[in-house]
Amino acid sequence: MALDLLPVVDATPAAACCTPRTAPAISEDDAQQLARTLKALADPTRLRLLSLIAAHEGGEACVCDLTEPVGLSQPTVSHHLKQLTEAGLVTREKRGVWAYFTIVPGALDAVTGHLQAHLRVADPAA
């Protein structure tokens, strides 16, 4: 009985299927943080709240000024603002019985910076 043997294939690096990375990839910790921030931004009510805060004089708004424009109850608006605070997008300052919110300077720039740094495909013509 004859045995048919398979040919030996050259396994040199030139035959490899993977291409090398040309830029650093986002770290796991940075990806987790960025995902939390993007999740907070992925809600239309939260985007409106950020816009409303930015539109107020001095870039600061009381929670009492935010409930009517979004048409939600104060506890619901407070929940959304808590999510934005935990994501590092706004700060909260308590004054008496009211809470005032301000957009964190540079927070949105940091988000776009991460996206540009880690998700941009290099131009092969460059």
Provide structural commentary.
It is a single chain. The chain is of the alpha+beta class. Helix content is 48%, strand content 12%. The protein contains five helices and three strands. Strands 1-3-2 form a three-stranded antiparallel beta sheet. The radius of gyration is 25 Å and the shape is elongated. The relative contact order is 0.14. The model has no long low-confidence stretch (mean pLDDT 86).
State the strand order across the main sheet: 1-3-2
SSE order, as H and E?
A: HHEHHEEH
Most strands sheet? 3 strands, antiparallel
Number of helices: 5
Mean pLDDT: 86
Low-confidence stretches: none
First-to-last CA distance: 60 Å
Radius of gyration: 25 Å
Number of strands: 3
Question: Structural class, from helix and strand content?
Answer: alpha+beta
Helix content: 40-55%
The proportion of strand residues reads 5-15%
Indicate the overall shape: elongated
Blueprint of the fold:
Blueprint lengths: L27 H14 L2 H12 L4 E3 H8 L3 H13 L3 E6 L2 E6 L3 H13 L7
Antiparallel strand pairs: 1-3, 2-3
Main attributes?
3 strands; alpha+beta; three-stranded antiparallel β-sheet; 126 residues; 48% helix; 5 helices; elongated
Question: What's the quick description here?
Answer:
It is elongated and about 90 Å long. Helices cover 48% and strands 12% of the residues.
